[in-house]
Design brief:
With 254 residues, this protein is of the alpha/beta class. The chain has 7 helices and 15 strands.
């Protein structure tokens, strides 16, 4: 193979991520790792930015899981999952269209996966449509649903503001705070957006940007400009929120 292949690694734990990179460097030195990601949202952004040939995705990551990432980018790169699940759960991968690595990843097992990937890439096989497989994996392997957030409380001076989760229109974050916005009020909380997302229903709240999560049923329209970039408007808010290209797939016409 003459062209240099590229890949990203996504795992919320430092050690497995570093170990996988080390093994890949040893077994496939020609492979260029273009990004390492701690969260699914970061992986989605990296795939959009770097257009890698392969994504090594940990199934269990906070917020957006490896399964979510693979579903969002279907057809754009080959996916290899890393997982700590036992062999019973691994039976779900037996179809062969999806590869997996059981953690801790062994040299021999990774060598097998690399060999299969090289053959697929060399033959220019299209990335398989994994929609049905991903649905089955999602039902079987998705971790238990964490306790959902029902209220957000924010301290404003000597006052505590209370926001019912169903009244919140969107969350936006910077490095230190997360802004919580309702139709008639807002506040800032000292909690990272990624931590808040772990307690949100991903069907009810959609991430549309690295730093923005919106309540899906509050979206009234999405505008696309001449460059193909989207902004959304929410019922009860005058703000127009930018959608990053990594999340534009949510608004593609049916």
């Amino acid at each position: 193979m003459t062209a240099m292949m590229t890949a990203i690694i996504a795992d919320d734990e430092d050690l497995p991520r570093k170990d996988l990179r080390r093994l890949l460097n040893e077994l496939w030195p020609e492979l260029r790792i273009v990004a390492e990601c701690e969260h699914g949202a970061d992986a989605l952004e990296a795939i959009h930015e770097h257009q890698p040939d392969i994504a090594f995705l940990d199934i269990r990551m906070p917020g957006m899981t490896g399964l979510d990432v693979a579903h969002a980018v279907k057809g754009r790169c080959h996916a290899v999952f890393t997982t700590a699940y036992d062999s019973y759960a691994i039976d779900a991968f037996s179809c062969g269209a999806v590869d997996y690595l059981l953690k801790p990843v062994s040299t021999a097992r990774l060598a097998e996966a690399i060999d299969r990937l090289k053959k697929r890439l060399a033959s220019q096989q299209p990335v398989p449509d994994l929609s049905q497989i991903m649905s089955a994996l999602d039902k079987r392997l998705r971790p238990e649903v964490p306790e959902r957030i029902r209220w957000i409380s924010a301290s404003v001076g000597d006052t505590i503001k209370m926001f019912a989760i169903e009244k919140i229109l969107f969350f936006s974050s910077d490095e230190k705070y997360t802004r919580v916005v309702c139709a008639h009020d807002e506040a800032h909380v000292r909690k990272p957006l990624k931590d808040i997302m772990e307690g949100l229903d991903s069907e009810q709240f959609w991430q549309i940007h690295r730093s923005v999560v919106v309540r899906a049923d509050a979206i009234v329209r999405a505008h696309r400009d001449e460059m193909g970039r989207y902004t959304v408007e929410l019922e009860g808010s005058q703000e127009k929120l930018k959608v990053s290209q990594a999340y534009a797939w949510r608004f593609k016409p049916m």
